Amino acid sequence: MTREEGIQHLKSHMLVKLPSPTKKFTGQTIIVTGSNVGMGMEAARHFVRLDAAKVILAVRSLAKGEAAAKSIAASTKREGIAEVWELDLASYQSIEAFAKRAQALPRLDIIVANAGVLMYKFELAEDNETHITVNVVSHLLLTLLLLPKLRETAVATEKPSVITFTGSFTHKMTEFVERKNENIFAELNNKDTARMKERYYVSKMVQLLTVREFANELAKSTKGGKIITNVVNPGFVATDIMRHSTWAFQLWYRPLRWIMARSAEEGGRTLVHGAEGAEETHGQYLDDCKIGATSAFVISPEGDETQKRLWRELRAKLEAVHSGVLQNI
Ligand SMILES: NC(=O)c1ccc[n+]([C@@H]2O[C@H](COP(=O)([O-])OP(=O)(O)OC[C@H]3O[C@@H](n4cnc5c(N)ncnc54)[C@H](OP(=O)(O)O)[C@@H]3O)[C@@H](O)[C@H]2O)c1
């Protein structure tokens, strides 16, 4: 991250007051992944408060999901709107089962692809290191499987359906050296060269680049039913995302979080802003509830070339998991 980017972030956390969302989601069905805690749960709470008809808490622990649904119902005084569905993004089988279940929904207006992991150990989940599976590949698989349902809803409601991804400013904190290899995903699977201290940042870079290319592909599609997709940077938010860090890290991280971080509710506001799906947000990186600036690399010619390579590699991966799924675009 450059000095200027650091100062910009500091200013944004100290001076910017994020607007509390007021736009209604009346009648809409919304899926929020990773919504048993943190800003996913707070975004879900906003959607219920803002009149959504059904908010699906897509979580890997049903018990934690039920506790979140109970808390949301109590605070919004709207019973039965938040529903808990099982989804483990570390398992393609779980994603397929979730998507199959969602096909029976009468409508699907929005997906908030929010769940994420931050860990320091190299562990595989399916065919990738866990950050890459959970933070990148699985969310793309899920949204591609649900694209027909989103399009069908967009046609019926005569308004775009939305897929918003929770990204991160930390994509600016990596040089992303893995890009120098012939096959980037293969290199990210190499335990011997894996730089786990930076892996979370790298996963957010790969997510941003692949979603930008996904947005380009969507814009070229001639299928009916418009889709808006964007990547939200919620900023530095007081959640438990750093739960796997060392105690030495926690020693300076916790006071910093106490001084600087936004609350999970404020973080949730940024997700709701992305989910509102304003046309101009398509393919964009959103910061402080408006269009923001990515790292210089992302918009450089090399960033563009890397984006296209990553997309080609990801397409092959997704095709291997579910043949024909790319045709949903
Ligand atoms: N906090 C920040 O400062 C910050 C900044 C930028 C971006 N973000 C991003 O914001 C998003 C939400 O994180 P948060 O800060 O709210 O942290 P959090 O409270 O730790 O929430 C993460 C959520 O992801 C879920 N999750 C993790 N692995 C999963 C899996 N395999 N399948 C399904 N769900 C899974 C977690 O479920 P369990 O409870 O079962 O683990 C939890 O619900 C993440 O994408 C994170 O990268 C956070």
Automatic annotation (TrEMBL):
Transmembrane segments: none
Entry keywords, A to Z: Oxidoreductase
GO MF term list: oxidoreductase activity
Domain of life: Eukaryota
Pfam families: adh_short
Name of the protein: Uncharacterized protein
